[in-house]
Structures are given as structure tokens and as C-alpha cells.
């Protein structure tokens, strides 16, 4: 969902990133903590997330990344 392309418009990418940020903030730590590192790596991948060509997508990616950084810093 984060790959720029014809089927993944900026609106779709923004919605996906907002969902990720919401998951990190609302789902219990124990249920989602094991996925935090994978999400952080995906958001930092070239042409995805924080490196997206569209500014608003990058803004949402930074927000989602911050939420997962906070999650990964929490202890069980």
C-alpha cells in the first residue's frame, strides 16, 4: 500500500499511513510490538513512507513512524 504507483494514489497511501499510526496508538502493546521493527524498516525504505514524492504522504509517514518508535520503546 505504501508503494507509489497508479493504483496507490497519494490519498490511498495517506489513509494507509493513518491506519498504521492509529494501530500503534490504540492496539494493546503485546499484540503489535512484534511488528514494530518491520513497520519501521518499511517506512524508511526508499520511495516509501518518509521518502515518498508527495509531501503530505511524507508528513503522515513521519507521524506513523513516530508512533511506532514510541511503541518499540515501551516495555512489555
Automatic annotation (TrEMBL):
Q: Where in the cell is it found?
A: Nucleus
Which segment of the chain is annotated as a signal peptide?
none
One Gene Ontology cellular component annotation held by this UniProt entry: nucleus
Instruction: Give a GO biological-process term.
Output: iron-sulfur cluster assembly
Highest rank taxon of the organism: Eukaryota
| Principal cellular location given in the protein's record | nucleus
Sorted UniProt keywords: DNA damage, DNA repair, Nucleus
Family affiliation? Belongs to the MET18/MMS19 family.
Q: What does this protein do?
A: Key component of the cytosolic iron-sulfur protein assembly (CIA) complex, a multiprotein complex that mediates the incorporation of iron-sulfur cluster into apoproteins specifically involved in DNA metabolism and genomic integrity. In the CIA complex, MMS19 acts as an adapter between early-acting CIA components and a subset of cellular target iron-sulfur proteins.
Question: Could you identify this protein by its name?
Answer: MMS19 nucleotide excision repair protein
Amino acid at each position: 500500500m505504501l508503494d507509489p504507483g497508479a493504483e496507490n494514489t497519494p490519498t490511498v497511501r495517506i489513509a494507509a499511513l493513518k491506519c498504521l499510526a492509529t494501530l500503534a496508538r490504540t492496539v494493546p502493546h503485546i499484540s503489535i510490538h512484534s511488528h514494530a521493527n518491520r513497520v519501521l524498516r518499511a517506512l524508511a525504505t526508499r520511495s516509501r513512507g518518509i521518502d515518498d514524492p508527495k509531501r503530505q504522504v511524507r508528513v503522515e509517514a513521519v507521524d506513523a513512524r513516530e508512533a511506532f518508535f514510541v511503541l518499540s520503546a515501551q516495555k512489555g
